[in-house]
Amino acid sequence: MFPTNKKIAVLHPYLFKKWGAVNMMIYLSTFLLNNTNNDIIFYTFLYDKTIFPLKHKVISFENSKLVSFFKIAYHIRNYDYIFIWNSPMHFVWVISKILFWSKAKIIWWHHHYPWYYGWNTNVFVKLKKIIEKFFLKYIDSTIVNSKYLQDSIKDIYKIDSKILYPVLDNQFLNYNSENKNKNQTSKLSKVIFTYGRRVFGKNIKLIFDTYENLKNEFRELVLIIWWEWNELNKYKNKYMDNKNIIFLWIIDKNQIIKNLEKSTLFLFPSKIDSFWLVILESMSIWVPVISYNIAWAKEIIKNWINGYLVNSEKEFIDKSYQVLNNSAHRNNLSIESIKTARKFSENNFKKSLSKIFNSIK
Question: What pLDDT is stored for residue 301 in this prediction?
Answer without folding.
Answer: 95
